[in-house]
Design a protein that fits this description.
The N and C termini lie far apart (about 50 Å). It is built from nine helices and six strands; from the N terminus they run H-E-E-H-H-E-H-E-H-H-E-E-H-H-H. The chain binds uracil.
């Protein structure tokens, strides 16, 4: 199955209560061969209308953060834990997450990225399988069987709590280093100890 076929197969999904309130399923967008994938929580109003993840205010911030480390939306893949908008943007419920989780896992398998960045608590806890808060996990790498997980604060949280903007930017700088190391695993000059050695 291709990623397009998986998306089409969910076009009329009725597996949970979110089907009744959505305009459309927001499956995912981006490079089907991406090395890096971002996973958010659930579509909001704009995503539900446009059929694409992260196109509202949080998406604008995500795009800026990506560009700050030289990444464009075109080269990555973006999806959400649940593919349909929860009413009034409420949190996705545990049973909705459970119902949609196999599709996210299948999506990750088909994209086969080296690194998955989980945005916020819901994506991080879903992909890590642990109920630990994002503030404890952010900015660190976790080896999962098929990919490396790099939890990040959710851009919407940084929009609502200005004090999270700086840690969020710092985590993206860490992400840049993680990506550089992934591309050049032999390049020890990127390791933090080499900076100390030059001083
Ligand atoms: N927040 C999310 O988690 N996902 C989106 O697609 C938009 C906002």
């Amino acid at each position: 199955m291709t990623i397009d076929e998986l998306g089409k197969s969910l076009h009329d999904c009725q597996k949970c209560r979110l089907a009744s309130g959505r305009t459309q399923v927001v499956f995912g967008v981006g490079n089907p061969h991406a090395d890096i994938m971002f996973v958010g929580e659930a579509p909001g109003l704009h995503e539900d209308k446009q059929g694409e993840p992260f196109v509202g205010a949080a998406g604008k911030l995500l795009t800026e953060l990506l560009e700050s480390i030289g990444l464009s939306r075109k080269e990555i893949y973006i999806a959400n834990v649940v593919k349909c908008r929860p009413p009034d943007n409420r949190n996705p419920q545990p049973d909705e997450i459970e119902t949609c989780q196999p599709f996210l896992l299948q999506q990750i398998k088909l994209i086969n990225p080296q690194l998955v960045c989980s945005l916020g608590n819901f994506a991080t806890q879903t992909l890590l399988g642990q109920k630990v808060g994002i503030t404890k996990l952010r900015g660190q790498t976790f080896q999962r069987p098929d990919f490396m997980l790099f939890p990040l604060l959710h851009p919407a949280a940084a929009l609502h709590q200005g004090n999270l903007r700086i840690p969020m930017k710092e985590d993206f700088q860490k992400l840049k280093t993680v990506l550089e190391k992934m591309k050049n695993p032999q390049n020890t000059s990127l390791a933090s100890h080499s900076t100390e050695a030059q001083e």
